[in-house]
Specification:
- The protein is an alpha+beta fold.
- Helices cover 69% and strands 7% of the residues.
- The strands form 2 sheets. A 4-stranded antiparallel beta sheet has the order 2-3-1-4, with helices on both faces. The chain has a two-stranded antiparallel sheet with strand order 5-6.
């Protein structure tokens, strides 16, 4: 696989399935299945119609065969009744069937029209031929009876009137004529021909039954195949429907629900699901990250000093909520004669001095310690997990800070700091200041004494721990009186 193909696959996996493409695909599949279902339904309908037509044809064919059979039997019955009773009414009925009803002829015509010139209809044609043969005998019997009873022949059908009698028959008596007529319609010769008619019609019935069953079998087989196809298409429709539901759930619904929950919880959105969902998630995440970055920056700006990067008062207050102040030490650092430096060298140099002090403080204390620029030239350092036994080490560290501050570039004025230290001894920090505040003032090597105002400023810095503490306000004077001044290791009580 080439690198381009790999990049294309990775890009496709990253972007996911496009709903537009999925919609086109599913629409095309659905349309194809719908067309196949319509074609299948049309074919099933045709197969069903063929099955019904086969049954209907059998019924119609059977009715035509029965019509020929019934018409033939009707003529036989009427001629026999005439021979037995001599009633002219039976002759009229006979002739009405032959000339008016014509059931035999009509049935044969219908069958010939359907089967055309097929050999399948031959038995019915033979039955009709035998029926026509019997008519000659039947007209002959009618003429004999008419002569026997002495009826006026002019009232009889033409075929009866013009049927020729043999010389022997012309000389017969009435009884002989009747006997001859009865022999013609009841005798063996007549019965044999009659049986031939019935036999041919039975053969025709069997043929149409076979034809009907063949047509039904063909239609049923076709119907079964078509029904099987339709069942297969129905299963495909169900599978496609389930697939659409699954894809929609995995690529749209589930990611949307998850994204809504993440939005409520103010979390970034996972880039999962369809292309459009991923695109929206990526766009949202970009905005989310930008907002979080801005929010983080705003929080940082609100809690940090813009010049030194140390915590400001607000940031210090927030940090104090998260630590145990009972085991902390507080160092108050004040830049010596900073006002003179600011007035002499200007605010730009003054800012560089403050930044340099902050950098030195950062390098001199642990990462877990909290550094704060509390005022213009005042800094606070909150040492975590620190006890009063460590005071000497802290004093050495402050002297080291002053040494570092003195070792500066020529374009930077010399600066030193003074520091005050307060320790906690398992008590709350404010309680410590009320009962046994101890401030260690470590001035610079220039011999600058820390003025009482500096101590007051440092005591004011202590207020940030509990600004509303009533005990503190009552004991401010006492705390100030108990403050200790240290000048290069020498203690002077105020």
């Amino acid at each position: 696989m080439t690198s381009k193909q790999q990049d294309s696959n990775q890009e496709r996996q990253r972007n996911g399935i496009k709903l537009k493409q999925l919609n086109y695909f599913m629409g095309t599949v659905t349309l194809i299945i719908a067309i196949l279902l319509l074609v299948s339904m049309f074919q099933i309908t045709n197969a069903y119609k063929q099955l019904v037509a086969a049954t209907d044809n059998y019924i119609v064919w059977g009715s035509h065969i029965n019509s020929l059979r019934e018409a033939s039997d009707y003529l036989t019955d009427e001629v026999r009744l005439f021979v037995e009773t001599g009633s002219k009414m039976h002759v009229d009925n006979y002739q009405s069937e032959v000339e008016d009803s014509r059931r035999r002829e009509k049935a044969l015509e219908e069958m010939e029209e359907f089967f055309k010139d097929s050999e399948k209809i031959r038995p019915m044609q033979q039955a009709m031929e035998y029926s026509l043969m019997l008519m000659e005998q039947e007209y002959h019997a009618m003429r004999l009876i008419a002569e026997a009873i002495g009826d006026d022949l002019s009232t009889y059908p033409e075929r009866v009137i013009h049927f020729p009698l043999s010389i022997e028959e012309q000389s017969m008596t009435s009884d002989q004529l009747k006997a001859k007529a009865i022999e013609l319609v009841i005798g063996d010769e007549y019965v044999i021909v009659k049986h031939q008619i019935i036999s041919n019609l039975d053969v025709m019935s069997d043929l149409i039954l076979t034809e009907m069953r063949t047509n039904q079998s063909t239609s049923l087989n076709a119907l079964k195949v078509l029904l099987g196809n339709e069942q297969g298409l129905t299963i495909i429709v169900i599978i496609v429907t389930l697939f659409v539901i699954l894809i929609t759930t995995l690529t749209v619904i589930k990611p949307l629900v998850r994204n809504v929950d993440n939005i409520k919880e103010e979390k970034p959105l996972p880039e999962k699901g369809a292309y459009e969902i991923r695109f929206l998630a990526r766009t949202y995440n970009q905005i989310y990250r930008a907002n979080r970055s801005k929010e983080k920056q705003l929080k940082y700006d609100a809690s940090h000093d813009y010049l030194t990067g140390l915590y400001n008062r607000q940031g210090l207050e927030e940090k104090l909520k998260t630590i145990d102040v009972d085991r902390c030490a507080l160092i108050i650092v004040d830049a010596d004669n900073f006002k003179n430096t600011n007035d002499t060298f200007g605010h730009e140099i003054g800012d560089k001095v403050l930044t340099h002090i902050a950098d030195v403080l950062k390098d001199s204390f642990r990462t877990g310690d909290i550094l704060c620029r509390y005022g213009g030239d005042e800094f606070l350092v909150l040492l975590t997990n620190t006890e009063e036994s460590m005071k000497t080490n802290i004093e050495e560290r402050i002297r080291s800070i002053n040494q570092k501050l003195c070792a500066i570039d020529e374009d930077m004025p010399r600066i030193t700091v003074s520091a005050g230290i307060a320790f906690g001894m398992g008590e709350s920090l404010m309680s410590l200041f009320e009962k046994r505040t101890r401030l260690c003032i470590l001035p610079s090597k220039t011999g600058n004494r820390v003025l009482p105002s500096t101590i007051r400023n440092m005591l004011r810095c202590i207020q940030i721990f509990r600004p509303h503490d009533r005990i503190y306000r009552r004991s401010y004077g006492a705390a100030r009186k108990r403050a200790a001044l240290f000048h290069f290791g020498q203690q002077e009580e105020l």
